[in-house]
Amino acid sequence: MDALEITQKLISYPTITPKECGIFEYIKSLFPHFKTLECGENGVKNLFLYRIFNPQKEHIKEKHAKENVKPLHFSFAGHIDVVPPGDNWQSDPFKPVIKEGFLYGRGAQDMKGGVGAFLSASLNFNPKTPFLLSILLTSDEEGPGIFGTKLMLEKLKEKDLLPHMAIVAEPTCEKILGDSIKIGRRGSINGKLILKGIQGHVAYPKKCQNPIDTLASVLPLISGVNLDNGDEYFDPSKLVITNLHAGLGANNVTPASVEMIFNARHSLKTTKESLKEYLEKVLKDLPHALELESSSSPFITASHSKLTSVLKENILKTCHATPLLNTKGGTSDARFFSAHGIEVVEFGVINDRIHAIDERVSLKELELLEKVFLGVLEGLSEA
């Protein structure tokens, strides 16, 4: 089965987060020689398939036993859940349609196309050396993600089954397949700031202390400010205000307080502690309350790592493109792999229609992505 055929089947399951809809049974049927582990909570389901290739060779067994060396464990990872399709599609979002060189359907790009490509590559992989190949899938990436990939990796750690390397098949490319590899992601810090004032009548400003005026005086030091200078792979960390609220809704009463909600997407150079230190310095003489919560930590995989190098080689060979290594975009499940010390990168199809009406993926992309993934498997197994 090729990537297109598998992706068509995957799209036909209406797996809106966290519904799994029986899709794992279909995927398991493709891999009868793989062992399976499943876990989940709160309606979330996770599937882990794995197979040790060539364990029967006695001389290799003896060598590994003597040197206490395990075969390389590589994992493909992804999610089978999708966001709600919405209205005004040209066709049923869960009935895949091929039209003018594209496959249409919810999840075509994000990320059933990527999953279909690595499932097909895994089916066609036949290494000559010891190699542990696994596939990790979750039904909760688009949602909170608490009981998805994170939970499965914790279970794998308990069973000593954590992979050494992983590719998450997120749709990373911008204009052509092969133009971008995510070698890391920025962290995310959520914050709430309350500036306090004295409520009163607008006609008697000397008896009031308007916290909106107070906030305005320091806003240039907060809104959109760069918290560091970034580096080769990370943009400067930036604080972005997402909501402001103050007052009772009356036009003659000044507010007692103003509340500001914000988020900081940050590199390795900025932490929750350094952000707090900066804001406390800006607000030091003002009556305020500050809350910060880190929802994800930044990470990066070395640009010269074996995984990155093999992936780049196969992209150049198959797609005739030189990928840009970057950390742009939001958070992803790759962060959970990194937290366990797993070498992880993200690579997948073009992302111009993700979460959009009439989501689609190029048939040529699916074909090329499958070849890239198979090339990566072969390259790692021969290393």
% residues in beta strands: 25-35%
How many helical elements?
Answer: 10
Query: At the third CATH level, what is the topology name of the largest domain?
Result: Aminopeptidase
Q: Largest sheet at a glance?
A: 6 strands, mixed
Number of separate strands: 19
Task: Please state the structural category.
Answer: alpha+beta
**What's the arrangement of strands in the largest beta sheet?**
1-2-6-3-7-18
Rounded to the nearest angstrom, the distance between the terminal CA atoms is 27 Å
Number of domains: 2
CATH superfamily membership of the largest domain, which one? Zn peptidases
Q: Mind telling me the CATH class of the largest domain?
A: Alpha Beta
Looking at the overall shape, the CATH architecture of the largest domain is 3-Layer(aba) Sandwich
| Low-pLDDT segments, ≥5 res | none
One letter per element, helices H and strands E, the order comes to HHEEHEEEHEHEEEEEHEEEHEEHEHEEH
**Helix fraction bin:** 25-40%
Rough shape? elongated
Average pLDDT value?
A: 95
Radius of gyration: 25 Å
Protein name: Succinyl-diaminopimelate desuccinylase
Organism: Helicobacter pylori (Campylobacter pylori)
Domain Peptidase M20 dimerisation: 183-286
Pfam families: M20_dimer, Peptidase_M20
